Structure to design on (218 residues):
């Protein structure tokens, strides 16, 4: 299984001019929550142009569906235009491409709740803000979501306390 | 007499979250947080690989 390389994945997406926002565990960590994760979750714009750019990037990092990697099923334009989740494995590690999160929130709806962050070497990425991550996890209320909520809530409190 | 902090800092929240760890993470830039996470992931995967045959 390829090792997770977050920077390589983000570089490929940015250089490919894909419109995306980081959500999930990596977004929480980038916002300052002390959490670990092994995959990169992104919500992407499902416009025709963006899906074409995304497919080029995914091809370049050898992305196939993670469920049956031996079958080497590659995502198609019709898949990536859907609101569903695509759990992929790439040569830079696991990548989850999400059409929507929560109750059908797509890239355009999430954009006002995303912060642009510098992650080194001049690279800037959009990251979902902590308040929205918390709201989504409260809404989903799965065991995994509930387990991390205390850390996320206390992180947001500390940010506010520090005047952020 | 010096003013007292109305909200003195504590090490743990009432629900048991380590606040010192959060404050440390918040002292880093996003780029440093990403580096930190990447190092953790690499270390965990390396240990898992070392013990895969056991």
């Amino acid at each position: 299984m390829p090792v997770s390389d977050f920077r390589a994945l983000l570089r490929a997406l940015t250089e490919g001019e894909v419109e995306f926002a980081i959500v999930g565990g990596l977004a929480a960590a980038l916002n300052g929550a002390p959490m670990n994760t092994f995959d990169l979750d992104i919500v992407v714009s499902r416009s025709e142009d963006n899906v074409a750019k995304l497919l080029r990037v995914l091809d370049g990092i050898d992305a196939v569906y993670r469920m049956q990697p031996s079958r080497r099923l590659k995502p198609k334009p019709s898949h990536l235009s859907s609101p569903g989740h695509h759990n992929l494995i790439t040569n830079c590690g696991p990548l989850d491409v999400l059409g929507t999160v929560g109750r059908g929130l797509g890239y355009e709806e999430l954009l006002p709740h995303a912060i642009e962050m510098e992650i080194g070497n001049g690279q800037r990425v959009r990251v979902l803000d902590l308040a929205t991550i918390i709201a989504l996890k409260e809404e989903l209320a799965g065991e995994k979501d509930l387990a991390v909520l205390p850390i996320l809530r206390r992180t947001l409190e500390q940010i506010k306390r520090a005047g952020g | 007499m010096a003013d007292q902090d109305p909200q003195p800092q504590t090490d743990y929240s009432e629900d048991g979250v380590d606040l010192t760890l959060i404050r440390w993470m918040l002292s880093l830039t996003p780029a440093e947080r990403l580096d930190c996470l990447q190092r953790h992931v690499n270390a965990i995967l390396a240990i898992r690989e070392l013990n895969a045959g056991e």
User: Anything to note?
Assistant: The interface with chain A takes residues 7, 13, 15-19, 21-26, 28-31, 33-35, 37-38, 40-42, 44-45 of chain B (CB under 8 Å). The mean pLDDT of chain B is 88. The CA atoms of residues 43 and 49 of chain B lie 10 Å apart.
